[in-house]
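Sync notes, pocket subgroup
Present: LS, DG
LS reminded everyone that the earlier model was apo-only. Rerun requested with 6-O-phosphono-beta-D-glucopyranose included. Inputs:
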Amino acid sequence: MLPRSVMSSAGTDSLRTRAESGNMRKKPENCIIVIFGAGSDLASRKLFPALFELAARGHLPEHYLIMGTGRAGISTEEFRREVAGKLAKFAPVGPDKTDALEAFIGRLRYVKADFLEPGDYDNLREQLADASSIGACGSNLLFYLAIPPGLASQVVRNLDGAGLGGRQVRCGEWRKIVVEKPYGTNLGTARELNRIIGGVFSEEQVFRIDHYLGKETVQNILVFRFSNGIFEPIWNRHFIVNVSITIAEDFGIRDRGAFYEETGLLRDIFQNHALQLLAAVAMEPPVDFAADSVRDEKAKLLRSIRLFDASEALRSVVTGQYEGYHSEKNVDPGSPVETFAAVKLFVDNWRWKGVPFFIRAGKNLSETMTEITVTFGCPPQNFFGPADSCSYIANQVIFRIQPEETIAVRFGAKRPGEELITDPVFMKFDYSTSFSEKGLTPYHRLLLDAMAGDQMNFIRQDSVEYSWAIVDSIRKSLEGRLPEPYAVHSNGPESLQDLYR
Ligand code: BG6
């Protein structure tokens, strides 16, 4: 038998070959992508650049069309010019890509449709029928709802009314719907949206998108936890003393005043991005790595999060609003909307009982970064310093999601010299130096997943409802409490410190 060291290096190649072949995804089948809200900020900044990038890399099917819809009465030619302008701004095209750009622009069509006007959907159906034969695209349809949450159910009803629902699909064809976050505005509206969508599309056809789940570093949390033997045995309340998740941005709401006034940070970032990070870092191992096995565990974890009552919220929730928010465009001068939230929450299950999870997210903070820090307890005896010095060198695993893409392990080491002094040091893995391949951007990956029908990185109906139950309990218990002002580019409101005591 080979010694272990030889076996492991011999095994590396076969592992790499397996992983590479496993990652090779077949091209999606020919289809038409219909974007509702083609003029939205999201479509301009994220969707069209991602679709163009997919096309330029040859990842889109041979025959595809992208049909933009919206209220604007513009022609396909005007729409193409608009999209070309957005690509120039948000996805600068290199000289080598001008042919690809021309080909991509040629695949765009525009149909005027008032989302709330059922009659416009008959026109859309006819245009789709024409497009499917002219472009040889076939009748597979991917609907993408890049629209405010309040409009989604009406669009779905109208699709159904026009015979474009998922349950009306003919044999051998597929229809799928991607729904952007926020999915509803609270538990009640999310349930209602689930009920309406569920009447028109089956759950396998529904892709509730949270672009955080398309990030390499977020997907890597599960790989880190479940492909290594050394972390999982200590990944629990017996060894971990707290977990903290930070989603900080050093910019404000930009030009999304109207959106923020309706949403606020808890619904914009906490309900989805933050709770999904928590689910990834805290969920149980799935029975296998199939989409629903993973999503079962995430749902179970979210369901185990303790809901808040008013007295709990007083101790465990801090909300804030950055100074100057009231002067942002489309913001009410007396607005009580939060642009910052910090929450201490508990997961009531066998693995995590009693371990505090701190989540902090906000706009206009001192820096832009997303990070999860898992902090471990002290050794039973501290030989190298005063008894209370343990937290100074506490062991931590730190997942830096962005802007750097790293994982660091923090531990104590002897400072060189005569004295025995311990300092914290880091062992660091960095995506940019360990791998030469560039990962896919989140929208790039998730669009491909949706076309291929892979639901692993999309949020299931039950999870979305559990997440809303948590956020609703926080919001309800905050009723009557105004967010605390905080200075732009600070760490948030001053009372944040109380949360960690
Ligand atoms: C979006 C939120 O979902 O995520 C924004 O609506 C936020 O408010 C953004 O800025 C952050 O995403 P990323 O990938 O830029 O960190």
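DG: Residues 211, 249, 268-269 surround 6-O-phosphono-beta-D-glucopyranose (CB under 6 Å).
LS: Confidence is low (pLDDT under 50) at residues 1-22.
Action: DG to write up.
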